[in-house]
Amino acid sequence: MNKDIEKHRLVPPGILFPFILLTALFFIWAVPNNLTDTMLAAFKRIMSLTDTQTAWIQVVCYLLGYGCFALPGAIFIKKHTYKSGVLLGLGMCVLGTMLFYPAMLVNNISSPLSFATYLFAIFVLFAGLSVLETATNAYVYSLGDPESATRRLNFSQSFNPFGALTGVLVSQIFVLSRLNTLTADERATLSMSELGAIQNIELNAVTTTYLILGVIMLVLLLLILFTMMPKAQDDDKSLHLKATWNRLKKNKNYTWGVIAQFFYVGAQIAVWSFIIRYAMQTLNLDSVIAGLGVNPSQEEVIAALRGVEPIAGGVYNLAEFFGIDVLLPRTAEQAGATYYILSLILFVIGRFTCTWFMKYIKPVNILSGLGVLAITATLIAIYASGFIGIYALISISGFMSAMFPTIYGLGMRNLGEDTKIAGSGMVMAIAGAAILTQLQGILSDQSGAIKFAYWVPAIAFIIITFYSFTYARKKTVELVD
């Protein structure tokens, strides 16, 4: 009995500190992921961009960054070690954050060129995140008994939403709060010098935030560099890429797992990227603040917003009671970010709850239940009006909470020596975020209603649920004919 308990331990004995460092990575990479999601709203305000234009941020993040660098990262890891992959990914992330500084300076020459430079900095950052996730997900998955691999990955991933929440809070406190409330039309009437002065303040807030993040990631890099990390089955350095992909593409569970992951990440980022826009449009937050006149005080803004919808009003009351003034909104974007924060709180609760339930309920059954609930909530968000739609949109995050690690764990079953390369396919699937978010931005601009654009994640959840009821339930590997 003792041997059985030892065998199925979540964390193998003797590697607690390395495991803590690896788990810390799940937290830290979520910060730029969710911080950057809010940059759609920030750059839309700063540079008067359309939803389609701001969605290019997600194309750079997830199609070019994650989509193009996961496989090279996996090949690097296969030739070297998981630790080498982690260090390479962190190093690229640090470089990407440092590039935000020259991007800010370029705005003095040209705003479009500055936005393009920011996009390049984000690309380098997310290329690093791609390598980092490819290494760390597979590392944790392989670090112990295969029977506990999905639960172990869910445990480490449980700290990811804390990082996501941190990213949004950092954005709200240090970026969104610094945005000038002038609309695109009002900015168009300013002189170049007046507009430049406003943009410089706003872009300095963006840049400083990312630079501090880069310093923190550098500290983590140094800690891992000087720590003895476990090998976790990375002795086999042979690389037969063609043979590996031939085996993987014939495995229906794996191929459909990658497809499900593609649509899951696309749905997650689509839901989160436009939640601020959804709240602003559905609750007419810009109009509420504009109705207060020129340069209203924060007290006037909060008083007006408190009566718009009861849950946000309760959040403002709690923030005032505990003296957390930084959470009180000054702009419509900040008010919209309140709902993003509430979504992430549900995401955190859902992740830990589902990880606990996996001791008693099969992961595939949890995935099926979450899929059905996510579809239902998304349809309500599309068709309900007012705060009912907002509440449904928030609830989607709770239902998404355990999808990524569960799909990863189910899709990666019994892959043996192909695990490292297979992990890159799961991370490359994150490119779905770029494609689905861009589609959502186009639908929003063409229809004039962000609500209608939420059909994009609704369809994605249908595909995920299909996978959970079909190939994910097969006990033996099925091969494609």
Feature tags:
single chain; 481 residues; mainly alpha; 25 helices; globular; disordered N terminus
Q: What do these coordinates show?
A:
With 481 residues, the chain is mostly helical. It contains 25 helices and no strands. The chain has helices at 2-7, 16-37, 39-47, 51-54, 56-79, 82-98, 100-106, 111-142, 149-157, 160-174, 184-188, 192-225, 241-249, 252-273, 275-282, 285-290, 298-306, 310-321, 332-357, 363-383, 386-400, 403-411, 419-428, 432-447, 455-469. It starts with a helix and ends in a 12-residue tail after the last helix.
Oligomeric assembly: single chain
Order of helices and strands: HHHHHHHHHHHHHHHHHHHHHHHHH
Distance between the termini: 43 Å
| Tally of contiguous helical segments | 25
Beta-strand portion reads under 5%
Instruction: Report the uncertain regions.
Output: 1-7
| Fraction of residues in H or I helices | over 70%
**Which structural class is indicated by helix and strand composition?**
mainly alpha
Write down how many β-strands occur, each being a DSSP E stretch of 2 or more residues: 0
Radius of gyration using CA atoms only: 22 Å
